[in-house]
## 1
Amino acid sequence: MAKIIAGIAASHVPAIGVAVDRGMTGTPYWQPLFKGYEPAREWLAKLAPDVAIIVYNDHANALSLELIPTFLIGVADSFPIADEGFGRRPVPEVRGCAPLAWHLAESLILDEFDMTIANEMPVDHGLTVPLSITCGQPPAWPFRVIPLCVNVVQYPPPTGARCFKLGQAIRRAVEKFDEDLRVVIYGTGGMSHQLQGERAGFINRQFDTAFLDGMTKDPLALTKITHTEYMREAGSEGIEMVMWHVMRGALDEDVAEVYRHYHVPASNTAAAVLVLENRSAP
Ligand code: DHB
Ligand code: FE
């Protein structure tokens, strides 16, 4: 049987990817952020999962504003790196896991989650930056990846509560898959940030810290945060944090916080990595 053994939350600021790609992670500006990633990387290398389900949002690269699926799953054998206007990031192609992805698509849809199915899809910084943060710069990514996109770009995005329930359905689906796969799930994006308008550069450490605490201790309370509250408390792009609820819903009620790192600023945002382990994990 396949099993979800751990969850990771990670921000996906594009400038973090640029710092990796240009060898700038040791500069005075970036070093404190990247030093904080090392324990998470060591933990993940030791865990050595077979597959990662990466819950992320596309930023109008694979999905233009002509088509806006609320939830989408990538079922391909591989996913090319998107060109976001500056050429492709020099990172390995992302290997998919078609058998588990198709099983998830079927199980989720029969479980009444109306997933869009992507047979082909380039993946953007929303997915590749969390991989860089947690895996460094290997010649090939160390596990297969199932991309799962959530719309947080065009109003209305799904609620945090709906995202949490999707996570619970993902767990049920994974546990029905026959092959013995050890699966981790990523929730990406956030933390507080606003990229435009009068409040550009807005950061709310107090909100972010309470959100990180709540992820471990009382995730259901966090699912009640409304879109307006995300906008007000975490900035317009802080709404990306609804994706963390998918990850959290797929874990045990009682999880162990293995590690967290929170840093301001990364570009003009707050960036975090949070590692949660299922207490029931083998
Ligand atoms: C930026 C872009 C993002 O998608 C994000 O989540 C945070 C920051 C940026 O362009 O700086
Ligand atoms: Fe983003």
## 2
Amino acid sequence: MGLLGKGGHFSENGRNCKLRIDILGKLQRFMQVLGIETSCDETGIAVYDSESGLLGHSLFSQIDLHKEYGGVVPELASRDHVRRILPLIKKTLDESNTSFNKLDAIAYTAGPGLMGALLVGTAVGRSLAFSLSIPAVGVHHMEAHLLAPMLEDTVPDYPFLALLVSGGHTLLVHVNVVGDYKVLGESVDDAAGEAFDKTAKLLGLPYPGGPAISALAEKGDSERFHFPRPMTDRPGLDFSFSGLKTHALNTVNSEANDEQTRADIARAFVDAIVDTFIIKCRRAIKQTGLNQLVVAGGVSANKQLREGLITLMNEVNGKAFFPRPEFCTDNGAMIAYAGYLRIKSGQAESLNFQARPRWPIEALNL
Ligand code: KG4
Ligand code: ZN
């Protein structure tokens, strides 16, 4: 809705809020929220404005730092967040045409994730909010992934199903409304992203393995190898991906190590993952009667998975929703948005902030 002009400040529950007058002459509250993401190997910063949407976002990826180790080294990750976070906040505020004194709240990832990395974002976010006398809120990283598609033009209506596929988690969730989540299924061992990364390593591909294995699979022959679709032969919605990695290892060891063979293995691996998700999502749709599916988290950037799930949702006369590719992987925008929803509903962290490396999504409420 268009706005005629800026209003003043008022205090609600001890918080400063700004007012604008909308075109119908109604007083409207609006908010600008800074989002900070440091749960793993990406420093992500963004500013979300409740009226104009996303004002700006920046990301610093530590991939080059961790590449030579073939995975994230937690201590290096924390130290690099410390180096990057303040310059990145300043840059993002500038690029968003805003400043510290225009912010109404600060949201930071409080968990789940790497303890040291989380502590950087929580400490900086909470201290900044304290110094600016504005509220702060600790955001659940997987809830933020789940809500990332809400930053797009076409969004689902509640309730819907969400398939969250990241480097650390694989969750199939019944989303009733924001903050009301029921986990229908999850991985009993490796997360989907972890399976991509480990299998990529076996194939000699660089970290992170997801995008590399996906590109290699494009050149592979889907008829040459057939990998199992784990846990699809029994009822239920849980996943297991560690066996696929072992299957890939056995195939690598028993075949010639040429480029085509590696592409064929990548293809069999990707086909197995995509097929497994299609089977489980179809089952979840049947079980719940829901026909909207949100797919989010790093692996939702995967081309083959996106195509497979779009086809499935068309078949059931439903619709699949994804974040834009840059918001599939970790970013500050989803944190700013999820934080905005929580601040709007009156939640705020006390000064005694906490980082929660383990934090079940079902423990949330709003
Ligand atoms: O959500 P995310 O950025 O971080 C976590 O919260 O873990 O997810 C990272 C994971 C990595 O395992 C990475 O290999 C995977 O997402 N990934 C992909 C693709 N892009 C990132 N996996 C498959 N295909 C992709 N295109
Ligand atoms: Zn993530």
